[in-house]
Amino acid sequence: MRKPVKKGVITIAFDDAYLDTYRYAIKYLDKLKIKSTIALPAFFIGKTFEKRPVVGLKELKDIISSGHEIASHTSSHPNLFRLAAKDKKAATDEIADSKTRIERLLNCRVDSFVFPYINKNQSKVLRLKTKPYYKSARITSNTPNFNKIPLKAPYSVGGFAVTGKHSLPFLEKLVDYTREKDLWLVEAFHLVGKKNTRSAHRPKPYRFFMHIDDFKKHIDYIVSKGITVLTQKDAIKKLS
Ligand SMILES: [Zn+2]
């Protein structure tokens, strides 16, 4: 008997909703009819976050009409773990109010949550705080990690933050592994464009930058492998 073909699932996520990322990366996905998940910090719509312009209402409406998912990435992008230690209510408000704000402003449903910062929100209590408002929550890691199918823990979805130090062959290996083992890989990109910026925290170039030419090559590789690309919301529906 022949084994069923397993192909894995990939989610393309864009954290912080930078304007350049919209102009270059999201627009490229539109050409290929690929849907992504954009993690939006609700207070920064049309403003700057870490000195980089964030998409405004006009771009967000275009993003939604192209079928992408808008996920909440809190209101003010705090370190929720630290905030909750001082003020539990403030942390819960960040989780709940951001959803209401985005839904009201954009007239869309927000089903997914994305924790800000890398590995800083591993608290189970915090993850469970997202449950009354969202269908899933993602935590991001600097190291590659894969979610098993079927998905058992929708409030502990693992994402992998792609940085400038990850080469295309390395990323392609992750895609191959996802496909071979039939896993779910969430690739979290931040700034994708033609020009990098300075880091807001240290006198260095921003770590989470990918040149659009590399991004396009990487997406073309995923497409060439025939892997299903789903938004976070759709992956939860399909893989749970
Ligand atoms: Zn973020």
Write the layout of secondary structure elements.
Elements: E1 9-15, H1 19-32, E2 37-40, E3 48-49, E4 52-53, H2 57-65, E5 69-72, H3 80-86, H4 88-106, E6 112-118, H5 124-129, E7 136-141, E8 157-161, H6 168-180, E9 184-189, E10 191-193, E11 209-211, H7 212-224, E12 228-229, H8 232-239
Helix pairs in contact: 1-7, 3-4, 6-7
Bound molecules: zinc ion.
Provide a descriptive summary of the structure in words:
With 240 residues, this protein is an alpha/beta fold. The chain has one domain: TIM Barrel (Alpha-Beta Barrel). It has helices at 19-32, 57-65, 80-86, 88-106, 124-129, 168-180, 212-224, 232-239, and strands at 9-15, 37-40, 48-49, 52-53, 69-72, 112-118, 136-141, 157-161, 184-189, 191-193, 209-211, 228-229. Strands 1, 2, 5, 6, 7, 8, 9 and 12 form an eight-stranded parallel beta sheet that branches. A two-stranded antiparallel sheet has the order 3-4. A two-stranded parallel ribbon has the order 10-11. Bound molecules: zinc ion. Zinc ion binds at residues 15-16, 73, 77, 116.
